[in-house]
Design brief:
Chain lengths: 230, 349
């Protein structure tokens, strides 16, 4: 359990985010955010409660909500589209999540662990998901429609008229240049810093991979220069 | 020097202003764009007025009769002012029917426009027949029967949604329409009088039954008529397979999302600035405040004044307003107009 001073510091980090005053104007306690929230229908989660805790500066309860509740939000932003005050409860939750990562909270590590695989897939292929990963056992919610993507995947994908989409182990082909640019974006926007905080091992693996890809890219650039010289 | 007063709009405020000027012995020209005098309470078919409980047609009828019978009032219906020029004491207004009116001052009693619920599609108006507005329920009460438009059945459960078109930054309406809370509690009681087995639920953000409306309407609707008040802003209205409406909200005191079946959903529609206000502002050369209502002058010594000297505004032309206060403002503006013209006469003498 954190000390009051630590909880206060976490709250101040949320409060001082440059988006905070834009996302929170006040609160009429009308509950339209919670009424319209898909997550609130299935979990012990209420966007209005989050807004109220922030508005009343209840640092202990804010800390408590950051243990689990804020991760129930699907970031669909219906709350922001409905709020008569034009608050964005979803936007506030985005800030709270970023702060929880910055402070290396165990809850953030636990919640984000399963996404490590997605991140690895993304960094190695540029895709979050590939067609050959869509197998009936893993997608029971698709119902009988899953049969349509079973069978001869290669032939089905060949039917797509866009050449870069005719692949099965990636959703589409991502060029080396695009991948390297994506790594740069992640580094400059702090994604890699966040990753280092929540999963040091994954961070190391990905860093090595990025270095390798950058070298490949630089080699390719040199071959282009050589060609020009010829 | 002209001391005729031009009154624009013949609702509660305009009728009071016209009567005030006329009974003080001055001439009035009253211009009304509709074919009938009486303003929104008559044109929208209101039932009993708040707080008097008198039928709108009787109360407004007396105000109309008083003005129609006055020798000092010249009435033009179904016309508008299209051109306006001059200065205090020497204005000339041209009406759409070609008439030219010389006047010393003008009182704008141009009222408001009901919020059009079609602009909040998630609340089902225009999609489901049994979603109606307070204006429609007023008309039902005036006709003596509250029924679901879809099949004519008497509703078992009625939901009244407050703040429809009010207090909502999403649709650029940041004002409280002031009167809908009290009107809704009154309608809840009227529904119950017509159908004692019907349950009425009012969904609110805050209840603003100010002043004496607290016990006469808010408390009374609970204590005597068992109206249920739920602190919740409804997220959306949908329809169940059996045809009943479903309202989805959060019961904020119980802190859980709820979906409740209803037979009739009533939008307590707010007051928009009169949709003609941009035209009125252009013709008369007066300013509009940020919401689109007519802009007030300094109020303490220039009561009912606008941004142009010699032109006054009253009632819901200035902001959402009650009928009673609109009438008082109409009378106050009559006083102000006559006093200012008197001062002009003394100055020129």
């Amino acid at each position: 359990m954190a000390t009051y001073a630590e909880m206060r510091e976490i709250y101040e980090d949320i409060r001082n985010d440059f988006r905070y005053d834009h996302e929170l104007n006040g609160c009429l306690n009308c509950g339209i955010c919670t009424a319209t929230c898909p997550a609130a229908h299935f979990y012990d989660f209420s966007p209005r409660e989050i807004v109220q805790l922030l508005w009343t500066e209840n640092v202990e309860q804010i800390y408590d909500a950051m243990q689990e509740k804020i991760w129930a939000c699907a970031q669909c932003m219906t709350c922001a589209a409905r709020c008569p005050f034009k608050n964005s409860p979803g936007g506030l939750i985005a800030i709270m999540r970023e702060v929880s990562i910055k402070h290396g909270m165990q809850s953030a590590k636990d919640v984000l662990r399963p996404f490590g695989r997605v991140m690895l897939k993304l960094i190695t292929t540029g895709n979050q998901l590939s067609p050959d990963m869509i197998q009936p056992d893993h997608f029971p919610d698709w119902g009988p429609n899953i049969q349509k993507v079973e069978g001869d995947l290669k032939t089905l994908r060949k039917a797509i008229p866009v050449r870069t989409l005719q692949t099965t182990d990636t959703a589409w082909e991502v060029s080396l240049k695009t991948s390297v640019e994506m790594y740069t974006i992640w580094e400059m926007t702090g994604v890699m810093d966040s990753l280092q905080i929540v999963d040091e091992n994954l961070f190391d693996v990905i860093e090595d991979f990025i270095d390798e890809k950058r070298e490949d890219y630089n080699d390719w650039l040199e071959t282009q220069e050589d060609r020009k010289d010829d | 020097m002209q001391n005729t007063v031009l009154v624009v709009g013949a609702g509660p405020a305009g009728l009071a202003a016209a009567a005030g000027v006329a009974e003080s012995g001055n001439k009035v020209v009253l211009v009304e764009k509709a074919a009938q005098l009486g303003g929104t309470p008559i044109l929208s078919g209101y039932a009993k007025l708040v707080p008097s409980g008198e039928w709108a047609k009787d109360a407004m009828g007396r105000m109309v009769k008083r003005v129609e019978e006055s020798k000092n009032v010249q009435i033009y219906k179904e016309t508008k002012v299209t051109k306006f020029a001059g200065e205090p004491g020497k204005f000339t207004a041209t009406l759409a029917n070609g008439t030219s009116v010389e006047c010393g001052s003008v009182i704008l009693a141009t009222g408001f426009t009901h919020f059009d619920s079609i602009n909040k599609p998630e609340w089902g108006f225009g999609t489901y027949e049994d979603v109606v507005t307070t204006t429609q329920v007023e008309q039902m009460v005036a006709a003596g029967k509250v029924a679901c438009p879809s099949d004519g059945r008497v509703p078992e459960r009625v939901a009244i949604l407050l703040c429809v078109g009010s207090r909502d930054r999403q649709i650029g309406r940041e004002w409280c329409s002031k009167i809908c809370c009290t009107v809704s509690t009154n309608l809840a009681m009227e529904i119950k009088e017509l159908s004692p087995t019907t349950d009425v639920f009012i969904y609110y953000m805050d209840i603003r039954t100010f002043g004496l409306y607290e016990d006469r309407f808010y408390w009374k609707s609970q204590e005597e008529f068992k109206t249920k008040f739920v602190k919740a802003r409804i997220a959306e209205v949908t329809r169940a397979p059996d045809g009943r409406l479903l309202v989805k909200g959060e019961d904020t005191l119980v802190k859980r999302p709820i979906v409740i079946p209803m037979d009739l959903v009533v939008h307590a529609v707010g007051m928009d600035p009169n949709e003609d206000n941009p035209e009125i502002a252009r013709v008369f050369g007066v300013g509009l405040e940020k919401h689109g209502f007519i802009e007030r002058a300094e109020h303490y010594t220039n009561t009912c004044g606008t941004t142009r000297r010699g032109i006054y505004a009253v009632g819901a032309a200035l902001a959402p307003e009650t009928i009673d206060d609109s009438i008082s403002q109409g009378t106050a503006a009559a006083m102000r107009a006559l006093a200012d013209m008197n001062a002009l006469v003394q100055k020129t003498a």
